[in-house]
Design goal:
The complex is a heterodimer of chains A (87) and B (123). Chain A is mainly α. In chain A, α1 runs antiparallel to α2. Chain A is 84% helix and 0% strand. The mean pLDDT of chain B is 89. The chains are: A mainly alpha (87), B mainly alpha (123). Chain A: It comes from Thermococcus indicus.
Chain lengths: 87, 123
């Protein structure tokens, strides 16, 4: 472990991701759960970039790029399904 | 500790504060739209500063060691930041529009301008 400050920052960001996961579990409506998943994706990208700096591995940051783009496609697909098809 | 270390600590602190504020705002707001507003704005701003901290760290290590893998780390972090900045607001907009079209109304709202626009009324 090269830089421990990035590791502890990633741990605290993951605590925030756990709070977003609680909204996914206990959300009273479907859009609440989608908002929770969207927040979770953003926090996971931040945590992956911080872990890539902490462990000195650039490949984690590349995976964060791909995760950001794929989670965007997933969010758009869920939103289109929720509003009742393509219009 | 050099001045660059203090800059990295300041950026990481801003990142932690705003990401935790975004997570708490999911639990402290009454309906979908206010939760989306708080969570998306705060986590986007916090993630900008996380990536900036990584870029400053990588640039400092590149200055110290001259290893080209730190240049790669900084550039790929900036690509991740650009991808997140382009996709996060458009995803939030799509979620809000889909929630309104599927019948979830804003709680405690007096004026719903999008509902008036859908009915063909005046702006």
């Amino acid at each position: 472990m090269i830089a421990p400050e990035f590791f502890y920052a990633a741990v605290i960001v993951m605590i925030g991701a756990f709070l977003a996961l609680l909204r996914v579990f206990f959300g009273p409506s479907v859009p609440d759960r989608v908002v929770g998943v969207d927040t979770l994706n953003t926090l996971i990208v931040a945590g992956m970039v911080l872990l890539g700096a902490a462990y000195d591995r650039t490949i984690y940051i590349d995976i964060a790029i791909v995760y950001a783009l794929l989670s965007y496609v997933g969010t758009l697909a869920i939103a289109k399904y929720l509003q009742g098809g393509l219009e | 500790m050099s001045a660059v270390t203090y800059v990295i600590y300041a950026f990481l602190t801003i990142n932690i504060v705003f990401n935790l504020l975004g997570s708490f705002s999911l639990h402290r707001f009454p309906d979908v739209y206010t939760r989306l507003h708080g969570a998306t704005k705060c986590t986007t701003f916090g993630t900008i500063f996380a990536v900036l901290a990584v870029v400053v760290h990588a640039a400092y290590q590149l200055h110290l060691t001259g290893d080209p893998k730190y240049l790669q780390m900084a550039l790929h972090s900036l690509v991740a930041l650009i991808a997140l900045l382009l996709t996060n607001p458009t995803g939030a907009h799509a979620i809000a529009k889909a929630a309104h079209l599927s019948g979830y109304k804003p709680a405690k709202a007096v004026i719903d301008a999008y509902e008036d626009k859908l009915r063909g009324g005046a702006e």
